[in-house]
Design goal:
about 210 residues, seven-stranded mixed sheet, two-stranded antiparallel ribbon, 6 helices, 9 strands, about 25% strand, globular
Length: about 210
């Protein structure tokens, strides 16, 4: 069984914010599989179980709030036998520009509190993660930490929201590729893709992926 965890914060006030992109991608995957979430007290989150592209999956949205995401992941793993090689965590990343994805088999938390919590609870950073770039289109450094916190918790608007909608769809394809073809193939296909802002943010489908 594969465990796919989308990071975010519960509550309508956070809907559409950069920090909830993990939630939104898992929502799309759940819809693709025709599954439904249920509240799981043991998993400390919303859980959907079933088949996705012929693979047995568990889709988890922790409801512990971002900084305690590791508690939900750890709780699920205590009750279900899942090899860490079959764990994939989806998160936003303020170090990556909008329009970029990064999928890899391990690495540091990069300052992301949700990833940090998971690493601390599991005692290892040897699990796959899909990071979705959310660095603003017109601003690439932060003067104050509070500015960064405010940004990731505030719903996106306008062109940035349109671009992130495209990134969610691309991230969904990347997860499906990871499940069907493995990490190396997914990284080769999706780490090189870039969705750049255009005048009208036009896009088209091609071979199951989005391209400008």
């Amino acid at each position: 069984m594969h465990l796919i965890v989308g990071l975010g914060n519960p509550g309508r006030r956070y809907d559409g914010s950069p920090h909830n992109l993990g939630y939104e991608v898992v929502d799309m995957l759940t819809a693709c599989a025709g599954l439904r979430f249920r509240t799981s007290l043991r998993s400390l989150g919303l859980l959907a179980r079933g088949m996705l592209e012929g693979m047995d999956v568990a889709l988890l949205k922790p409801t512990t709030y971002m900084n305690l995401s590791g508690e939900a992941v750890g709780s699920f793993l205590r009750y279900h036998h899942v090899d860490l090689k079959e764990l994939l965590v989806i998160s936003d990343d303020t170090n990556l520009p909008m329009g970029r994805l990064r999928i890899r088999s391990g690495g540091s938390h990069g300052g992301h509190k949700g990833l940090l919590s998971i690493i601390q609870v599991l005692g290892t950073n040897a699990f796959a993660r899909l990071r979705i770039g959310v660095m603003p289109l017109e601003r690439q450094e932060w003067v104050e930490e509070d500015d960064l916190v405010r940004y990731v918790l505030t719903p996106l608007r306008g062109e940035e929201r349109l671009l992130m909608g495209r990134m969610k769809e691309l991230a969904t394809y990347a997860v499906i590729c990871y499940l069907k073809e493995g990490m190396a193939s997914a990284a080769n296909k999706y780490n090189k893709k870039e969705l750049l802002e255009t005048d009208s943010l036009r896009h088209r489908r091609h071979d199951g992926a989005l391209e400008t």
